[in-house]
Model the fold of this input.
Amino acid sequence: MSGRFITFEGGEGAGKSTQIDRLARRLEARGIAVVTTREPGGSDRAERIRGALLRGGAKSLGHLAEALLFSAARLDHLDSKIRPALADGAFVLSDRFADSTRAYQGLDGSLEPGLIASLERVVVGATKPDLTFILDVPAELGLSRAAARREAKAEGVDRFEAEDIAFHERLRQAFLAIGRKEPERCLLIDAREHADAVEERIWAAVEARFAADLPAEEPVRKAHAG
Ligand code: TYD
Done:
């Protein structure tokens, strides 16, 4: 039995984690086993690498070293969490995956696209996402949402949030380009809308794409009078 692998991508403050929680609840309500996870991280060893990366500990090592560390975290995440869950037949929902390496580490040609593609082939292998939602918001809106979230949690900016707005706007374009390049796998979602509207669009896409995997909804019982 093989599950389904759905990834959520986009810039900062696009609302990925909210939408993952909502999709997980809707799938579970249909009797589907769901595993939610995130990158970098998702497994004990990968979470340790995450800590170093987001504190900026690897920035001075350069783009290649950062890409290798994201990839090392992904290797462990795939082996210890994603592949076992898929083998159990679960739907795996991941907050970011390999497209983030393409977009962030490949930004402005800082690493050769061929190198990133090779790394992805070696690390991801056949475990490609069945469906990827690219949540799109203008950089300014995304950054202001991310700032509000940080304030609520009393957190500081991380390695990538600290980059300027031009970086984040180029990042947005990089994700849009990935969506255009792989339209079969990627679905672009306008994430400026209210979270409820975004949730409905995502659910409609999941129902359409995985109709054969979703058990039919319980029919609503009609009350018979008399
Ligand atoms: P996170 O706090 O999860 O950010 P967000 O809520 O925006 O998803 O931090 C993850 C950061 O790591 C984010 O800035 C994107 C970056 N990243 C990469 O640069 N490359 C990668 O391969 C991945 C998975 C994430």
Q: What stands out?
A: The chain has one domain: 4-211.
